[in-house]
């Protein structure tokens, strides 16, 4: 567990691309998880899907510094897109993902053109409004989306015509994990490109970036669309693996949970998004089975502690570990 | 015509409740730049304390209400002095996280202490009937809520415009560093404002108990509502919050009467429109 996580953590510090060993280690890690927890594949699949959503949220909140509580609108759009595609067009999962990603990006474009004009509280409130409006529309269009009952009864064809989605979630596990890894690689590339760095610059100092000649508004719209595409992708995977889309996949609660996960792992850092999701889901999995209110005690206490922890305490620990592991490969962390 | 007046009356009553609950949040956010998502917890604390005092301990309605508000204010003052004060200098995200964590913790504690069912606040006999005003008959409780809402507006106006504390408060909202160097005790203003806002929230929690039932998830369920009112009204603006609360209350009530199938659609659509036109508050042109 430590090995691949901390390898990834080690690569975050200023190294723009990862050594291929890290990706290999991640693949090994995915296989080891599969081998260690054969009974929890559905849970692990959910973690992978949420991690993808949280990484996408990280682009907007972590990199560009715009806290949003409406990210589930993009996720839900992708989920409904993939489900409707499977129901009416084709059962091919990869085509479905393209549709999901496209619909997430489309909603991000339409809402982003309006949203990213604002900052701070106004932006936060407008994103809440967008997710609520979208949820109400989805609930009202019962003939298309199934309303409160959720959208189900669509068939997803086997991946590459070979791997059928089985009830034990084996295919779903590999499907979502591989897609998470691929998305991570792509997003890592995007965010360490000049474009990604300019988004960080916008977060740090808008006026200065503007004086440097960066056009803030188009950059932010572009970033929001990219985030929308990946949130839609996560929604699409969720729809295909679970074979049902509920109204809650477009809800305010999912958005808020995603934000909490992101902050637990650390913002502005894609590895943090994955670690935070795993941490949150893990605690949720064990605490909530006992009593949902115990869960609130735990997460509430955890959130309060995170704020008062000295800055970078978790990162320091991760860095130490990463240094040890990297030295095994003969590298200096 | 009857429907229109129904919508207006219910909308105004609802708006008054929204105003009383949210105005404290608006002032703390404007004054301290502190995003306090735990504000709903104070409304719930007031409601639960009032329910406990009146139902279990046999206090008369108004005595229980006053005690509950006083206790909530004391709780808020203590929390402000020891905990929340340390968050003022933090980033928005950290404030949001801490206060939402606090809210979760509060929900779990309340559930642990009082159970997961809805708390009823028993009304005295003279509040249960209805009252005839001109051509209309209205439930007395609604009239009381509207009257107390107006009372709060008047009280706040007097406090802010007519007292020395009001001068300090306005000066601190405009520029806290400058006010501090002019000898205003900023810490006192902050703490008193926070406690006073929490007290108003407690009052709103009790008055609005019929419209917003008191249950453990109360602070999360109505949090977004409060934030919408504050954001539309503009941070730190009492009159803006009043306008926003009345307007949104009427819109929400109208959409419930006329288009119930759409859920909250019109409420949020109205909010998007208002925020897009006036991102700094409904009464501020900039």
For the structure shown, list the relevant keywords:
heterodimer; A: 333 residues; mainly alpha; ABC transporter involved in vitamin B12 uptake, BtuC; 15 helices; 2 strands; disordered N terminus; B: 286 residues; two-stranded antiparallel ribbon; 13 helices
What does this protein structure show overall?
The complex is a heterodimer of chains A (333) and B (286). Chain A has 333 residues and is mainly alpha-helical. Chain A has helices spanning 2-12, 20-36, 41-63, 72-88, 93-115, 120-140, 142-145, 170-191, 194-204, 206-211, 216-242, 252-265, 270-290, 292-308, 313-328; strands at 151-152, 244-245. Chain A has 15 helices and two strands. A two-stranded antiparallel ribbon of chain A has the order 1-2. In chain A, helix 1 packs antiparallel against helix 13 (270-290), helix 4 crosses helix 11 and helix 5 runs antiparallel to helix 11 (216-242). Chain A is globular and about 55 Å long. Chain B is mainly α and 286 residues long. Chain B has a single domain (2-118, 138-277), classed as ABC transporter involved in vitamin B12 uptake, BtuC (Orthogonal Bundle), CATH 1.10.3470. Chain B has 13 helices and two strands. Chain B has a two-stranded antiparallel ribbon with strand order 1-2. In chain B, strand 1 (130-133) and strand 2 (136-139) form a beta hairpin. At the A-B interface, helix 6, helix 12 and helix 14 of A face helix 4, helix 11 and helix 13 of B.
Instruction: Give the helix level of chain A as a range of percent.
Output: over 70%
SSE arrangement of chain A, N to C: HHHHHHHEHHHHEHHHH
Number of DSSP strand runs of chain B = 2
**Overall shape of chain B:** globular
- Our count of domains of chain B comes out at 1
- Annotated CATH topology of chain A: ABC transporter involved in vitamin B12 uptake, BtuC
- Overall SS class of chain B: mainly alpha
Distance between the termini of chain A: 19 Å
Using only CA atoms, what is the Rg of chain B?
19 Å
Under the CATH scheme, which architecture of chain B would be assigned? Orthogonal Bundle
The helix/strand order of chain B is HHHHHEEHHHHHHHH
């Amino acid at each position: 567990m430590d090995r691949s996580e901390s390898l990834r953590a080690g690569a975050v510090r200023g190294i723009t691309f990862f050594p291929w060993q890290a990706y290999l280690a991640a693949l090994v890690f995915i296989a080891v998880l599969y081998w260690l927890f054969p009974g929890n594949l559905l849970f692990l699949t959910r973690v992978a899907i949420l991690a993808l959503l949280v990484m996408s949220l990280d682009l907007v909140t972590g990199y560009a510094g715009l806290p949003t509580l409406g990210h589930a609108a993009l996720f839900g759009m992708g989920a409904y897109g993939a489900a409707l595609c499977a129901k009416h067009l084709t059962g091919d999962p990869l085509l479905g993902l393209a549709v999901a990603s496209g619909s997430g990006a489309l909603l991000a474009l339409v809402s982003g053109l309006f949203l990213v004009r604002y900052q701070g509280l106004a932006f936060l409130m407008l994103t809440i409004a967008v997710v609520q409006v979208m949820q109400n529309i989805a609930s009202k269009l019962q003939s298309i989306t199934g309303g409160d009952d959720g959208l189900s009864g669509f068939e997803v064809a086997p991946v590459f015509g070979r791997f059928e989605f089985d009830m034990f979630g084996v295919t779903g596990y590999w499907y979502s994990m591989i897609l998470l890894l691929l998305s991570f690689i792509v997003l890592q590339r995007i965010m360490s490109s000049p474009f990604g760095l300019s988004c960080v610059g916008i977060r740090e100092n808008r006026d200065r970036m503007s004086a440097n000649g960066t056009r803030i508004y188009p950059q932010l719209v572009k970033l929001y669309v990219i985030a929308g595409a990946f949130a839609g992708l996560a929604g699409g995977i969720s729809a295909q693996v679970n074979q049902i889309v509920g109204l809650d996949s477009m809800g305010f609660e999912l958005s808020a949970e995603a934000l909490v996960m992101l902050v637990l792992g650390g913002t502005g850092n894609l590895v943090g998004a994955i670690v935070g999701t795993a941490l949150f889901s893990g605690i949720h999995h064990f605490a909530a089975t006992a009593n949902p209110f115990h869960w609130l005690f735990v997460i509430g206490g955890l959130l309060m502690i995170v704020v008062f922890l000295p800055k970078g305490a978790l990162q320091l620990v991760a860095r130490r570990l990463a240094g040890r592991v990297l030295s095994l490969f003969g590298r200096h962390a | 015509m009857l429907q229109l007046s129904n919508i207006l009356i219910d909308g105004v009553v609802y708006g008054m409740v929204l105003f009383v609950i949210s105005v404290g949040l608006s002032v703390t956010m404007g004054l301290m730049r502190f995003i306090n998502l735990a504000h709903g917890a104070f409304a719930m604390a007031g409601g639960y304390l009032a329910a406990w005092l009146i139902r279990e301990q046999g206090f008369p309605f108004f005595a229980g209400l006053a005690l509950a508000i006083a206790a909530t204010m004391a709780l808020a003052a203590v929390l402000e002095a020891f905990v929340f004060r340390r968050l003022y200098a933090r980033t928005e995200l950290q404030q949001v996280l801490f206060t939402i964590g606090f809210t979760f913790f509060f929900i779990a504690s309340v559930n642990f202490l009082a159970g997961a069912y809805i708390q009823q606040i028993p009304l005295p006999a003279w509040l249960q009937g209805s009252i005839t005003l001109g051509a209309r008959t209205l439930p007395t409780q609604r009239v009381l809520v509207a009257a107390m809402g107006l009372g709060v507006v008047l009280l706040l106006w007097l406090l802010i415009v007519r007292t020395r504390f009001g001068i300090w408060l306005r000066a601190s909202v405009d520029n806290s560093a400058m006010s501090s160097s002019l000898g205003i005790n900023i810490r006192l203003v902050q703490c008193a404002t926070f406690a006073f806002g929490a007290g108003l929230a407690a009052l709103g929690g009790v008055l609005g108990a019929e419209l917003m039932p008191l249950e453990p998830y109360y602070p999360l369920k109505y949090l977004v509502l409060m934030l919408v009112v504050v954001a539309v009204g503009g941070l730190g603006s009492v009159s803006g919050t009043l306008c926003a609360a009345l307007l949104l209350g009427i819109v929400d009530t109208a959409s419930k009467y006329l288009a119930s199938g759409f859920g909250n659609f019109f409420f949020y659509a109205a909010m998007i429109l208002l925020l897009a036109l006036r991102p700094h508050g409904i009464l501020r042109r900039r």
